[in-house]
Write the structure tokens for this entry.
Amino acid sequence: MAEHFEYNHVPAHLSAVENYHVKSVMCYHSNHVVLHLVRQMSTRFAFIDLANNKFLGVFGQCFVITANECVHGELSPDLTKCAVKRFASSGTKPATIFLYDLKTKKCPVILEHEISSANVHFAFDPRFKSSRLAVTNFAKDDENTLNLVNVKDWEVLMTNHRADDTKPVLYPTFRELLYSRDGSFIIGITIEDECFCEEFRARRRYNPVSVAIYVYNSDTADTLRCIQIQRYTCGKHLCASNYLPIFSNCGSRMAIAVNDPFKPDRNYMQVYKLPPPLCLEALCRRCILQIYRPVDVPKLPIPMRLVSYLQFDPEYN
């Protein structure tokens, strides 16, 4: 995959002249990706439009090698901002969240915020273009919190002081934070911090790991439900797609892959119906998307504003 991006998408002056190579895909949204580029003592990020095969800019140069596990990024729903978390692998320095403006090729830093905890996960609210984040452990000395933050001035709007109600701290089990399609719910995922890669390669029997999927209210950050499942996976090294939930096109249902400890060779799918929205327009959107496929929505004889709403485009500035 690295060679594909370097040959087809990364400009020659970066890959051939400046000797940058692709280390990983840091984040993606829709048809856009942000690549993690590295060379001897430098790190940068490349913003690429895959649909149009267009290089949009490079940003975030740092004169130090940054490991994949030490950097995390998220693109805003309107693709105008990118939030990047960086921290030192040695743990001697706190993490810092940088907010980059992607409207120009220079992609300057417009905001930055230092956080005392390195175990920080965040996600943009899909209802807001780029102005609201859900962040874990945002405040100082809080190791088990979920915060709703206004990006413009880093104001904390809401806080849940018991994001994980079974442990005193989120580190190191908290792995993923994401929103549902319509932005009504926040999904947080914790998984046991154990590695079974050696047992898997040797085809030795091992126990499934416990995964907890928390559902939070995206307006109050309150915990609504915790779903406990078991998966035959590695909590440290395997892709998160082994335990991440997926949502239906209409956003009304959430599906999760699970394993039975007594039948390790079988995978099952659990489908959960999410609570219905309170507003009439959101209920209508669910009904329409249960009939029409996403590719058919732009062809409907309705105004473009309604098409944007059916496609879950951001509503608020």
About this structure: Helices lie at 2-8, 12-17, 197-201, 280-289, 304-310.
